[in-house]
Amino acid sequence: MRQIVLARRPVGVPVVEDFRLEETAMPELGDGELLVRMRVGSVDPAIRGFLDDRPSYIEPVAIDAPIKGMSLGEVVASRNADYPEGTLVRAFATWSDHYVLSDQSWGIEKVQPQPGADLHHYMGALGPVGLTAWVGLFTIGEAKPGETVVVSAAAGATGSTVGQIAKAVGCNVIGLVGSEEKAQVIRDLGFDAAIDYRATPDIAAEIAKAAPDGVDVFFDNVGGETLEAVLPLMRLHGRVAVCGMIGQYNDADHPFGVKTLWQLVVNRIKMQGFITFDYPEVLAQAQAELDGWVAEGKLRPLANLRDGFESLPEAFIDLMSGRTIGKTLVRI
């Protein structure tokens, strides 16, 4: 089987020399295990954190070990009656074109695509991306119809999904992006306002214009200066769902010091980080609602597609360089 392994730890934005393609023997199955052939590889900003030798919610990737990440695949051999050959599953796995899972593997779920839905969307807006958006917006952010929601990295995989499902339930949605091209993308998706932070000297002033009565929910994918700008604009009892801090992933040794955290006390703001699979009790409801919104045309999955197992590193580098729109996926 083929694997993409970590050749060296990246410094700043990853480059191709940080990765290496290798071949190794196909693994043997133990009792209860299943051999899965990768069909869709997920390329996520969080992977960047796994490549540094520092504590995270996932053990760092070791040098010469395969990169870790979410994957959707097909069971091609099984010693587990609950997962017969042909079953489609997604789980946290590795960048290997075949890998071994068990029913105890983190995040493992059976995937049952709806008629007419492309399989790759079940690693995007109909998969981990959509579930993350749903959990962050509703379980953590407690968004309600009529409230104002601000989303950072709004043209990205999770941000574009958050904005659309917030609109689907009747929220006013403001998206923060890094180019006019991305601003037009989210306008076309139905966002009420799009703010290009690179084109304005005062992002807080622009958000205040779009949300004169304040912000109820901030879905944050960026952290740093963006978080600092939004906190003073939050309404009383506002909620901040901290999904990620992509603004710091390429330079985690020099984190930005947010100076407006006092606003958490001033306006009694709830600010909470989250991992989607900490909330298994809501995932069935989330999946059903996501499927429904896609069927109704209220959720348009954005996918930045690549083809071929060997293209995973290049796709990841483009993502971490800010060159992508929507969910970056590699079809195998």
From TrEMBL:
SUPFAM superfamilies: GroES-like, NAD(P)-binding Rossmann-fold domains. One of its GO terms (molecular function) is oxidoreductase activity, acting on the CH-CH group of donors, NAD or NADP as acceptor. Residues 14-330 form the Enoyl reductase (ER) domain. Pfam families: ADH_N_2 (PF16884), ADH_zinc_N (PF00107). It comes from the Bacteria. The keyword Hydrolase does not apply. The keyword Calcium does not apply. Gene3D superfamilies: Medium-chain alcohol dehydrogenases, catalytic domain (3.90.180.10), NAD(P)-binding Rossmann-like Domain (3.40.50.720). Keywords: Oxidoreductase. Transmembrane segments: none annotated. This is Enoyl reductase (ER) domain-containing protein. It comes from Novosphingobium fluoreni.
